Amino acid sequence: MSISKSTLAVCAAGLMALGACTDPATLDSAVANPNQNRNAGAGIGALAGAAVGALAADSAAKGALIGAAVGAGAGALIGNDLDKQAAELRQQLANDGITVTNTGDRLVVTLPQDITFATDSSTVTPALQADISRVAANLLNYPKSNVQVIGHTDNTGDAAYNQTLSVQRASAVANILFAGGVPDTRVSVFGRGEDQPVASNLTPEGRAQNRRVDIVVIPQKTS
User: Fold this and answer.
1) HSE (side-chain half, CA atoms, 13 Å) at 180
2) Smallest Cα–Cα separation from 180: which of 136, 128, 131?
3) Which long-range contacts (CB under 8 A, 24 or more apart) does 85-93 make?
4) How far apart are CA 98 and CA 107, in angstroms?
5) Which tens digit of pLDDT belongs to each residue from 32-71?
6) CA–CA dist 7, 11 (Å, integer)
C-alpha cells in the first residue's frame, strides 16, 4: 500500500508536536500551565491516532486525519483528568513531605519512609494513615485508573531483608487504600527493595529519598 504525500505531512506534523512535548523548556513550564499535561496528551494521542488511521483506512490521508482527531480527543481527556486529580491531591494532603508528580501519563504519590514508618517497621504511622485515606477517597472519585503500590528501600543492610521489608510496607499502604473502599481489583502491590533508587545511596540525603512507597495511578486506556 502506498502512502500519499498528505499522509506523510500529517505524520511529520505529529512528530514535530511530539518533539515539542519533550523539549526541556516545555517541561519547565508545567508549573505555570496547569493544563500542560492535557495539552501534551492531546498531541501524543494525535500522533498515535494518525498512525493507526493511516494504516487502516482505504484512503490513507483521510484515515490519518480521522485517527488524529480521535486520538487527540482521547489524549486530551486523560491529560485533563490527570491535571485535575493532581491538583486535588495536592490540596487534600496535609503532610508537606508527600509529593504528587504528574508525568503526563500517570500520577506518582510518593510517601517518604521517614514520615510513613518507624525504622525497620512496616506499620504506617497514625499521622500518615489519614493522608493515605485521603488518597483512597481521591481514587474513588477517579475510578478509571489502575493503581500500583511500590515499596522501595536504600541499600543499607541485607538485600533480601530490604526486599521483604519493601513488600511489607507496600502491603501496609495498600491495606489502607482497601479500607478506604478502593477495590483490590484496581491495585497491584510490589516490593522493589533497593533495586530502583532515585538518588545516590552514597549520602544520607540520597538514602532518605530512596526509602519510600510510591502510589502510582495509571489511567485505563479507552477503546
Assistant:
1) 22
2) 136
3) 85/138, 85/141, 85/142, 85/217, 87/34, 88/138, 88/141, 89/134, 89/135, 89/138, 92/134, 92/137, 92/138, 93/131, 93/134, 93/135
4) 13
5) 455 555 555 555 555 555 554 554 555 555 554 444 444 4
6) 6
The radius of gyration of the chain from alpha carbons, rounded to an integer in Å, stands at: 21
Q: Using CA atoms, how far apart are residues 117 and 174, in angstroms rounded to an integer? A: 14
193, pLDDT greater than 60: yes
Higher-confidence position of 35 and 127: 127
Identify the three-state secondary structure at position 197: coil
- Residues 78 and 41: beta-carbon distance below 8 Å: yes
Cell of 158: 541485607
Q: Which residues, 6 or more positions from 219, have their beta carbon under 8 angstroms from its beta carbon?
A: 78, 81, 82, 105, 106, 144, 145
Mean pLDDT is lowest, of 55-59, 183-187, 217-221, for 55-59
Q: Which helix (H) or strand (E) holds 26?
A: helix 24-28
Residue 141 pLDDT greater than 50, yes or no? yes
Bridge partners of residue 110, in order along the sequence: 99, 214
